[in-house]
């Protein structure tokens, strides 16, 4: 849930967001 909120909060194209998204997908 937390990761999803972070990703949603940062709609901008940021490498950190992409990394978080990858982690969430792998989880």
Automatic annotation (TrEMBL):
Name by which UniProt lists this protein: Phage tail protein
Query: What is the taxonomic lineage of the source species?
Result: Bacteria, Pseudomonadati, Pseudomonadota, Gammaproteobacteria, Enterobacterales
